[in-house]
Amino acid sequence: MIWKPHTTVAAIVEQDGRFLLVEEETTDGIRLNQPAGHVENGESLLEAVIRETREETAYRFKPQSLLGIYHWRHPLKDITYLRFAFIGLADDHQPDQSLDDGIIRAVWMTPEEIRASQARHRSPQVLACVEHYLAGQHFPLHVITHL
């Protein structure tokens, strides 16, 4: 069997001191996550994060920089995730748009609310991304090359 990580993308959006998250149904119950998902075949990382954000929140996402690349192995499942987290802006909200299966709603939360809800996070990547964003971490989009 050939091992490969699950390649995912995530959108980090902060407006007026609040971060855009999604509340979603998972096999572990209702969890919080950034708008995020798997990269589909033939799709660039940027195309994937724009698509996933629209599907999960009904907002248009405009990537501005790369926050970081996160490697995480789920402790109870034999799955490794390689997450590319992008910082950007969200606009053009379409409140009548239906959201992806499993997504309950989009929610805006302060860093304090995110820290306090850590037990409900989909993975440790949720808080790590917020903390790295608050610390000022970011990289230009041109560090990613799509050939």
Automatic annotation (TrEMBL):
Instruction: Please tell me whether the keyword DNA-binding is annotated for this protein.
Output: no
Q: What's the name of the protein?
A: Phosphatase NudJ
CDD domains attached here? NUDIX_Hydrolase (cd03675)
Q: Which InterPro entries match?
A: NUDIX_hydrolase-like_dom_sf (IPR015797), NUDIX_hydrolase_dom (IPR000086), NudJ (IPR033713)
User: What species is this protein from?
Assistant: Methylobacillus flagellatus (strain ATCC 51484 / DSM 6875 / VKM B-1610 / KT)
What family is reported? Belongs to the Nudix hydrolase family. NudJ subfamily.
Cofactor(s) named in the record: Mg(2+)
Keywords, alphabetical: Hydrolase, Magnesium
Report the GO molecular function annotations. nucleoside diphosphate phosphatase activity; ribonucleoside triphosphate phosphatase activity; thiamine diphosphate phosphatase activity
Every copy of the Nudix hydrolase domain together lies at 4-133
Enzyme Commission code(s) on record: 3.6.1.-
Oligomeric state and partners? Monomer.
**First-level EC class:** hydrolase
